[in-house]
Design goal:
By secondary structure, the chain is α+β, with helices and mostly antiparallel strands. It has two domains: 203 residues, no CATH class; 146 residues, 2-Layer Sandwich (Heat Shock Protein 90), CATH 3.30.565.10. 68% of the residues lie in helices and 9% in strands. It has eleven helices and five strands, in the order H-H-H-H-H-H-H-H-H-E-H-E-E-H-E-E. It has a five-stranded mixed sheet with strand order 1-2-3-5-4, covered by helices on one side. A hairpin with a 2-residue loop joins strand 4 and strand 5. The longest helix has 79 residues. It is elongated and about 110 Å long.
């Protein structure tokens, strides 16, 4: 590989990495890439050792792109793109030498063209695959580390095979390298598949557990409403007798007082519970329904007015139910906590579908202090509640980072703190 081809391939890896990690390039980032990656790599590659230059390239790219994206996936993406670049390079050599018998300048240009074509297809396919996997699976840390070790070992074997001196014909060497790389890549894909299959099974079990817990909470709420209604029916006769006593004495003032303070207030909670649970009928996701019922009753017990509006049936949301319940739990806990000491606090929740079949979730709550810093609110440790308590919204940001189809808008309007989440349906 000549210097021109190497430069093209390294640039392609950088561009591919910005694409897979959704990094927006600007002059400042390009400057840091040149100073922090390109120059150190060239110096080490030329004046020390070529293998150390590759190690320098790998380490500096990892550090800098992590700073750009704040995403630990940079390690995996970089390893996969290195493998893809090596495979694309060998395939391009086969196409040029074995099929077209190109040489010299024409060979260099054609090789770069075929390389870019193959590598572009590889990067596009990888991004679509990894986003789909990350969106539907909660991959544990130890599995991520294991995947990184497998991929890193693969790169080491590939480069070791490339740099070991050989007396064989160049064309034969290219074919041998390609066979080894394809074989090892297939083995790596098999290991990935087994790991992800086990992770998928674990996630399904977690999802079932969450659904059962939330379903149990929903059934307990229904049972509580039923007990309250039975109690109301049991007291119905005594209530009528008491009211009859006031009417017999023509004591309307005391009757009004009795009705307001003993009947309306006593049964208001029962009527509220019935109304809330009735509004949840259109939500067909059991895990989410149980969470909303539990949080609504919790808010009502603390004297917070809460309403839930779901005008049409919601039977599918294009998001992992575990992540969705985590996000909703954090937002509702924050809304309840913000109104614990607020006079006439209120929380409104709404679910609805758009014409494009996206699901929009809106949670808004009354706010005492409208001077919240919306710029820093999603940063780690930022909180309006005290030191070391601001992890909830930061967790939401990390979760949503795995869902490019989910948009979140946070704003304050007339003493209302509003969180709006739009979940687009990727099947459309």
């Amino acid at each position: 590989m000549n210097s021109y081809s190497a430069l093209i391939e390294f640039i392609a890896i950088f561009v591919g990495l910005t694409y897979t990690l959704n990094i927006q390039l600007d002059r400042r980032k390009i400057f840091f890439m040149i100073v922090g990656i390109v120059l150190p790599t060239i110096c080490v590659y030329i004046w020390i050792a070529y293998w150390l230059g590759i190690l320098t390239l790998f380490s500096t790219t990892t550090i800098l792109f992590y700073r750009f994206s704040n995403n630990y996936r940079v390690l995996l993406d970089l390893c996969i793109l290195f493998i893809g670049a090596m495979l694309a390079d060998h395939l391009a050599q086969l196409v040029n030498i074995d099929l077209f018998h190109l040489e010299n300048v024409v060979y260099t240009f054609s090789h770069s063209l075929f390389f870019l074509l193959i590598f572009t297809v590889f990067v596009y396919g990888y991004k679509k695959s990894i986003e789909k996997i990350m969106a539907h699976l909660d991959i544990p840390l130890f599995v991520q580390i294991l995947i990184f070790i497998i991929v890193s070992t693969t790169i080491f074997v590939f480069y070791l095979n490339i740099f070991i001196p050989s007396n064989q014909d160049e064309m034969e060497l290219v074919k041998i390298n390609l066979v080894i790389q394809l074989g090892y890549s297939l083995l790596m894909i098999l290991l990935f598949s087994l790991l992800l299959y086990n992770v998928k099974k674990e996630n399904q079990i977690k999802q079932r557990i969450i659904e059962m817990e939330q379903f149990t909470a929903y059934m307990e709420a229904l049972e509580q409403v039923n007990r309250d209604m039975q109690k109301f029916r049991h007291d119905y006769r005594n209530i009528l007798l008491t009211m009859k006593g006031y009417l017999d004495e023509d004591n309307l003032d005391d009757l009004k007082e009795y009705f307001r303070h003993h009947i309306l207030q006593t049964e208001a909670h029962t009527l509220f519970k019935t109304r809330v649970l009735g509004n949840l009928d259109h939500l067909q996701l059991v895990g989410l329904k149980g969470l909303l019922a539990t949080k609504a009753l919790q808010a009502d017990e603390q004297g917070i007015k809460i309403s839930i509006e779901i005008p049409e049936v919601i039977d599918n949301i294009d998001m992992n139910i575990i992540d969705l319940t985590r996000i909703m739990g954090i937002l509702l806990d924050n809304a309840i906590e913000a109104n614990e000491t607020t006079y006439q606090g209120e929380i409104n929740i709404a679910f609805f579908k758009t014409k494009s079949d996206s699901t929009v979730i809106i949670i808004r709550n009354t706010l005492q202090d409208d001077s919240i810093d919306l710029v820093n609110i999603f940063k780690d440790s930022f909180s309006t509640k005290g030191k070391d308590r601001g992890t909830g919204l930061a967790n939401i940001k990390n979760i949503l980072g795995r869902y490019p189809q989910v948009l979140m808008n946070t704003r304050i309007e007339q003493n209302w703190f509003i969180q709006e989440i739009e979940i687009q349906d990727r099947r459309k």
